[in-house]
Design goal:
The complex is a heterodimer.
Chain A lengths: L1 H8 L7 H23 L15 H8 L1 H34 L5 H8 L1 H4 L2 H14 L6 H26 L2 H9 L4 H30 L2 H6 L7 H8 L6 H28 L1
Helix pairs in contact in A: 2-13, 3-13, 4-8, 4-10, 4-12, 8-10, 9-10, 10-13
Chain B lengths: L1 H8 L9 E6 L6 H11 L2 E6 L3 H10 L6 E2 L3 H9 L33 E14 L11 H4 L9 E3 L3 H12 L8 H15 L2 E4 L3 H7 L4 E5 H10 L3 E4 L6 E8 L7 H10 L3 H11 L14 H4 L21 H15 L1
Parallel strand pairs in B: 1-2, 1-3, 5-6, 5-7
Antiparallel strand pairs in B: 4-7, 4-8, 4-9
Chain lengths: 266, 336
Amino acid sequence: MSLLDTRSKDIRNLPGFGLTAGFTVAFLYAPIVFLVLYSFNDGRSISRLDGVSLRWYGQVFANEEIGGAALNSVLLAVIAATLATVMATAAALAMVRMRVRRKAAAYAVLNFPLMVPEIVTAIASLIFFSSVGLGLGFGSLVVAHTTFCIPFAYLPITARLTSMDPALETAAADLYARPWRRFALITLPLLAPGLMSGWLLAFIVSLDDFIISSMLSGPGSTTLPVHIYSMLRLGITPEVNAVSSLMVLASALVVITSGLIARKQS
Amino acid sequence: MRALAILLLTAAPAFAEGDLFIYTWGEYTPPDLVAKFEAEFGVKVHIDSYDSMETMIAKLRAGGAGYDIIVPGDATMQVLIAEDMVEKIDVYAMPNYANVDDKWREVYWDPKREYSAPWAWGSTAFAVDTAVVTGDYSSLSVLFDPDDDVKGRINMLRDMNDVINMAERYLGVPRCSENPDEMKRVLELLETQKEWVKSYDSETKELLVSGEAVVSMSWNGYAMRARDEKPSVVYVYPKEGYTGWMDNVAVPKGAPNMDNAKAWVNFVMAPENAAMITNYARYSNGIEGSEAFIEPALSAAPEINPPADAPAPEFIPTCSAEATALIDKVWTKLMN
């Protein structure tokens, strides 16, 4: 009886589940499948296949403008994700392990970047950076990306921290481990999966960002999404498909890694 | 303190003597042109791309953007000059200015060419598939009073100004009209036409090549690419006229590498260099003598070389607020 009960509660056994899921997945992924398919087109068209070739990928890798933009994007994402993870970890430790006054308010402030429309953050940052006399460039991008990456890094880290047994830390304290030692030997290793998936999430959010990057990039710091968007002006060739497919691949790898870590964690 | 902050936060390349920062559309600057300039002047060229004129202006307005060269379109150029956002570099006095075609010297956006040099130009008219459309197609009536076999196979650009300007030409209404009655006629024409329009879509090349559209409004560059894939596509310069656009090379106020920027402006006006732009971006340049260096397939292309009997392209400045409000109204009604 109890077996039947759990079975009927399993969402997979609801009528029409397969159909709905199939449509949803197709709706979400069919455009991407087409995008990737036409990136292998031998012709210039993005709607008619003229044979299969890797020529557009060759063109992407030979293209200095794209290469430079991709390098900027990756470098920016690594730095911003790292800074955001460090700050998010500090915030999570304070929120979960310590008594914080006005916790709800602090939580709201931490997650504010998720709620504010991105264009507002972008314009506000543009005005801010220029009014304090800090020019636009890689520096302004790092600051802005770190800011909006913090909530993305914060959520998985808090989740991990909440599920960790505080008794282990208490035991360490009982054995005279000083706070820093306790953090380095007990908390940090246990927190590692949360840190990793937080970092990866922040990395991918930074890598894909367009609006803020478009407003805040300065000389020599155009990012890949901004460059792709700019390429559209002269018409879409499969080169755009190829570079977009590579971004999809990079994102997928990161998300899968993050998922695997999360799975191991649970 | 501020200097320290900048030092700490700006990991971007330093503004050394030998740099040139170009802010332009992506894939618009030929790599061989950049390499040639770098070799000739010993300058490292950095290229950044913008996604729209608005983004570019927003950054220049915010100040301290740090770019040396921008490539604004004609209407934007006029705004930048009016708002004192570009340097007066006296392009007309530069040695290579002698190569600029007369047509591109007294232009509305920079009447004396004090601020800008031509980069590339193109036009917006329409293309027909002559395998299907066999009659006379020299007039906009192909789009607005179509034959039965064309009805339902027309594509219009999804561009408010281009569509309305075209309808205005067909009706003989002036551009940027502030007269509500005239604009009402424009709306009526477009609403009548809407019955026969398959789509309002900017991917004109795809539609023409796949045969979904047999008549389509089009930018000349797209029409040429469509012809590459489907030789029966012809780009038409309608007798009622058509819209032209020109991108220009200019120097934003406070450019950090002024000398290099001026050298670049002069450099792109040399015929062999302008030809590289055309060969790469596949749009016409405004430089006389560049024809000799352009790929034969391009120098023979009617899309970027209007025939002698074609009317001159019409360049349209930004409309007044009243006219813009009417245009918005017509477009909103049409799209609903």
